[in-house]
Amino acid sequence: MTDLKKIAKNLLFIDIETISEYSSLNNLPDRMKPLWLKKAGYLQNTEEISEEEQYFNRAGIYAEFGKIIVIGLGFFYWNENDEISFKVKTIEGHDELEVLASFKKLIENKYKPSDLILCAHNGKEFDFPYLCRRMLIKGVEIPAALQVSGKKPWEIKHLDTLEMWKFGDKKNFTSLELLAAIFNIPSSKNEISGDKVNETYYLENDLGKIARYCREDVIVLAQLFLKFNAIELLKEENIERL
């Protein structure tokens, strides 16, 4: 517990929710459409779905064809009874530039870039590079805490619970939901699951539902981090959703 207290003030858990940048393949700009179709040609399509469905279902995974609509953020603290507690919030919006700028402002105002430790599940392969790529695309300067260019591996303060679970095994991907089930952590999939985000945004027009889902994913992430450090799970009453 002492070690966690030592790093907690600089430890920030994050999760992003992404969608296709356009609501349909037909809405893609003329220059981008053939480039997506070329990309899609390399993707597995065992169910033989249409080009339109493939775009709607898969484009959000790729920073070149997707965009960020929600960023979830959470951190540990200790309450008046010295019990480990957690605060979690989301930055969400239809304007990706505003979402990214708000995220940048928050982490730069609250943390020293040299001290900030970011933690995400599969963050090194997805969340962190996706954030950086979309920031470049939208003209937002990448925060120092996300910059990896020119840094030595030990200078990059990024934690990844997927990497922690692999123990050096490079072969398999293990989802956050599977790890939550293994460790008996309450699921975040009460309203939607990750594969329904595009549908929830474009067909249901429910950004709030996506933000709630993202918030719960951040809580699951933090709970998993505690399990990996042999620390008891957070009590529900000690989780504050902002």
UniProtKB/TrEMBL annotation:
Gene3D superfamilies: Ribonuclease H-like superfamily/Ribonuclease H (3.30.420.10). InterPro entries: 3'-5'_exonuclease_PolB-like, RNaseH-like_sf, RNaseH_sf. GO terms for molecular function: nucleic acid binding. Residues 81-231 form the Predicted 3'-5' exonuclease PolB-like domain. This is Predicted 3'-5' exonuclease PolB-like domain-containing protein.
